[in-house]
């Protein structure tokens, strides 16, 4: 075998390998794109297309079952002149901020409690997931009964404690109605936080706690300086998801109050639906729905930047 | 324009594969299947009668198969929007309230069969025309009204010495005060439901001589002394006769309150009596119904018309027209009305003395209420702007805010500003 034979063979083989399909597929740049193609197609079809279509719709005067015509930003200007729109915007922010904070704090507490060793731990963990598993419409109907003045468990207790009958009107009073939907949303979303944070807690190496204990750290200090920093990335991700779900919530309000009383619980999604589907104003409805986008986009960018920096 | 070639049909079938999948493709291609979309009835035997009796009889007679597809309550407008947008999914649809006007461009003109049916069956009620005629053309075949009346507890009214339902709103208010004092409050929906709020608030507004928009369909007329009087009345009516909870009620709420004996009077469709009779017979015995009370300018009711329209893109238009004409024959229609007692009130005078009214004489006020029943927004013609006003609950919330404590002037000014914004482009 001459010393030249090796490179010769190699150069002779190279074009053949490049041309063969399996060789081409083996290339990382090709393979990775192939793996990405299907999800990308799904995203384009199920997220990209509706989003672009929604944006186009929002720029049109488009009554249902009639052809639309381009009106530029007129729909958005109409929204800005609409007092209900501003009420809806405030409602959505209050609902999202309060419910997310409650879920975050409650979820963390739940995760810490579930992380302890106790009997029937797995059963309790599974049961805690129930509010998240039960279809929203069903659980909301159950809440509808619980918040009915005549049947409400809460009112029974309050009346038992001396409050005059029939007790508070949970869905008739604007402030109580907002509190009610926040409580129900928190109840429903808590397990999502709890279980995800629990998974995060279990990845914290026990040695860190041992080291901290040896260093004389108290329970609070172990939580503050070991648990919390290690959980932070997970808390941020869960918060991101939770904010998106809560901001765009529809079912709970649609079933329970339909935005009443006097729009006190109307959110972007329910209001957009009423205008788009109830009034048949698809363009105007799309413009209301799209107003969710800037706020959510800002939040997502802010959280992503924060996570990168961290 | 309505003639569809085979190519068009194939295009439609391809575009609406999902909708078309609901119908056996072979039957549709042969032009022998007509799909009729209906909202699930609150009276279950009504849907069963169509499926098991009428559809089968028609297939036996003509060979055309009728697929009667039901959609859940409240979802009909969304389904029809989808069908109208995609051009596929059903051939005939049931309409409620404003749908014939919102989808007029997609509906076939059925003036011929509607006029013929009217002539044959003693003539249409004016309410029938109001519910289906768009720009001079019948875009739907009226089927019935699902009226809203006063439902009242005869036993509790008797406790305060009232044997006959009060004639005027003021008289009803006086009775309500006494009943609330006896822990039998009234319950009239003031929240964001769909039917039971409009069912009494528009008639109340009209009975005081007020309306939201003039008959020209563009001049906003809500800021009037008559409106202020109606709002003032609603506020005291709420405060002195009702539960606070009604401000947050949606449509099932008053039925629930009725069956749990929380309220002594409400405004609802006949389903409340129908349900009570079957599930809570003791309550059914003491439930009666009456026309809405009169105000200073008369007595009014809301027209919740049900009608049927044929989509103009249907590949089986002729079969659909033939079926609709057949359905409107008393032989078929009488049985269909009859099975639901009188939950569906015919809009044809030919049924004024039909045996269906004798099944439950307490329902007769529904028939009589047709004489002064109007679509929400009356006297303005139903249009997109009206649909927007309804979807934004402008009138409902005007009353509700006043009941919750806001001054009359303020709520009327707010409603006027909203309506002016909605009608700005007209």
Distance between the termini of chain B: 28 Å
Biggest sheet features of chain B: 6 strands, mixed
Q: Tell me, what's the shape of chain A? A: flat
Quickly name the level 1 CATH class of the largest domain in chain A.
Mainly Alpha
How many DSSP H or I helices of chain A? 16
Overall outline of chain B:
globular
- Spans of chain B of 5+ residues with little confidence (pLDDT < 50)? 1-30
CATH architecture of the largest domain in chain B: 3-Layer(aba) Sandwich
- Rg of chain A, nearest Å: 27 Å
What is the helix/strand order of chain A?
Answer: HHHEEHHHHHHHHHHHHH
Question: Roughly what percent helix of chain B?
Answer: 40-55%
Strand content of chain A: under 5%
Main sheet attributes: strand count, strand direction, barrel closure of chain A: 2 strands, antiparallel
Could you name the CATH class of the largest domain in chain B?
A: Alpha Beta
**By CATH's scheme, which homologous superfamily of the largest domain in chain B applies?**
Periplasmic binding protein-like II
Strand order of the largest sheet of chain B: 2-1-3-11-6-12
Structural summary, described in words:
The complex is a heterodimer of chains A (310) and B (426). Chain A has 16 helices and two strands. Chain A is an all-alpha fold. Chain A has a two-stranded antiparallel ribbon with strand order 1-2. The longest helix of chain A has 32 residues, at 83-114. Chain B is an alpha/beta fold and 426 residues long. Chain B folds into two domains: 6-146 and 305-359, 3-Layer(aba) Sandwich (D-Maltodextrin-Binding Protein, domain 2), CATH 3.40.190.10; 149-302 and 383-422, Periplasmic binding protein-like II (D-Maltodextrin-Binding Protein, domain 2). In chain B, strand 1, helix 4 (44-62) and strand 2 form a beta-alpha-beta unit. The A-B interface holds A 63-66, 78, 81-84, 148-151, 166, 169-174, 177, 257-263, 266, 274-275, 277-281, 284 and B 77-78, 81, 84-85, 102-103, 105-106, 190-193, 243-250, 256-257, 260, 262, 384, 387-388, 390-393, 397, 400-401, 404, 414, 417-418, 421.
């Amino acid at each position: 075998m001459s010393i030249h034979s090796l490179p010769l063979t190699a150069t002779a083989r190279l074009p053949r390998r490049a041309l063969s399909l399996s060789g081409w597929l083996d290339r990382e740049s090709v393979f990775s794109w192939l793996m990405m193609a299907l999800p990308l197609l799904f995203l384009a079809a199920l997220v990209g297309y509706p989003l672009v279509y929604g944006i186009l719709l929002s720029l049109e005067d488009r009554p249902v079952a009639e052809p639309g015509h381009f009106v530029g930003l007129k729909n958005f200007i109409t929204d800005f002149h609409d007092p209900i729109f501003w009420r809806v915007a405030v409602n959505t922010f209050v609902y999202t901020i309060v419910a997310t904070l409650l879920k975050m704090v409650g979820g963390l507490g739940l995760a810490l409690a579930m992380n302890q060793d106790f009997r029937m731990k797995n059963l309790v963990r599974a049961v805690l997931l129930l509010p998240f598993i039960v279809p929203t419409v069903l659980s909301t109907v159950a809440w509808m009964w619980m918040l009915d003045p005549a049947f409400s468990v809460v009112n029974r207790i309050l009346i038992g404690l001396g409050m005059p009958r029939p007790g508070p009107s949970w869905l008739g009073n604007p402030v109580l109605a907002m509190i009610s939907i926040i409580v129900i949303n928190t109840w429903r979303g808590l397990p999502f936080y709890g279980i995800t944070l629990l998974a995060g807690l279990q990845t914290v190496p026990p040695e860190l706690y041992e080291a901290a204990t040896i260093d004389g750290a108290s329970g609070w200090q172990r939580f503050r300086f070991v648990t919390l920093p290690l959980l932070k990335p997970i808390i941020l991700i869960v918060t991101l998801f939770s904010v998106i779900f809560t901001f765009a919530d529809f079912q709970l309000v649609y079933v329970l109050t339909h935005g009443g009383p006097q729009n006190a619980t109307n959110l972007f999604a329910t209001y957009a639906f009423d205008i788009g589907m109830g009034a048949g104003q698809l363009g105007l409805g799309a413009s209301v729905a799209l107003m969710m986008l800037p706020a959510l986009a800002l939040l997502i960018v802010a959280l992503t930047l924060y996570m990168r920096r961290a | 324009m309505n003639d569809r070639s085979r190519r068009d049909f194939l295009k439609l079938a391809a575009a609406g594969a999902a909708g078309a999948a609901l119908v056996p493709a072979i039957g549709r291609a042969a032009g022998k299947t007509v799909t009729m979309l209906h909202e699930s009835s609150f009276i279950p035997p009504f849907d069963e009668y169509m499926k098991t009796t009428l559809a089968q009889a028609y297939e036996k007679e003509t060979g055309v198969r009728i697929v009667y597809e039901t959609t859940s309550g409240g979802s009909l407008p969304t389904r029809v929007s989808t069908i109208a947008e995609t051009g596929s999914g059903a051939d005939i649809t049931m309409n409620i309230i404003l749908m014939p006007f919102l989808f007029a461009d997609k509906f076939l003109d059925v003036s011929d069969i509607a006029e013929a049916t009217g002539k044959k069956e003693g003539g249409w009620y004016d309410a029938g025309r109001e519910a289906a005629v768009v720009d001079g053309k019948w875009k739907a075949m009226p089927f019935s009204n699902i009226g809203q009346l006063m439902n009242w507890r005869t036993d509790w009214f008797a406790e305060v010495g009232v044997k006959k339902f009060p004639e005027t709103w003021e008289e009803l208010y006086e009775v309500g005060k006494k009943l609330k004092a006896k822990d039998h409050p009234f319950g009239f929906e003031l929240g964001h439901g769909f039917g039971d709020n409009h069912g009494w608030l528009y008639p109340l507004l009209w009975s005081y001589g007020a309306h939201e928009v003039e008959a020209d369909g563009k001049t906003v007329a809500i800021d009037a002394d008559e409106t202020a009087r109606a709002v003032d009345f609603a506020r005291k009516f709420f405060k002195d006769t009702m539960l606070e909870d009604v401000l947050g009620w949606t449509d099932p709420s008053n039925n629930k309150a009725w069956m749990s004996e929380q309220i002594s009077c409400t405004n609802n469709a006949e389903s409340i009596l129908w349900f009570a009779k079957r599930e809570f017979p003791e309550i059914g015995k003491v439930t009666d119904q009456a026309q809405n009370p009169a105000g200073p300018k008369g007595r009014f009711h809301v027209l919740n018309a049900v009608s049927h329209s044929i989509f103009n893109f249907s590949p089986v238009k002729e079969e659909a027209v033939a079926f609709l004409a057949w359905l409107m024959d008393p032989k078929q229609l009488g049985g269909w009305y009859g099975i639901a007692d009188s939950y569906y009130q015919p809009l044809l005078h030919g049924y004024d003395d039909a045996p269906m009214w004798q099944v439950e004489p307490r329902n007769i006020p529904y028939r009589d209420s047709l004489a002064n029943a109007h679509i929400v927004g009356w006297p303005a013609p139903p249009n997109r702007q009206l649909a927007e006003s309804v979807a934004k609950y402008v009138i409902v919330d005007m009353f509700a805010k006043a009941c919750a404590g806001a001054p009359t002037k303020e709520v009327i000014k707010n409603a006027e500003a909203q309506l002016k914004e909605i009608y700005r482009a007209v």
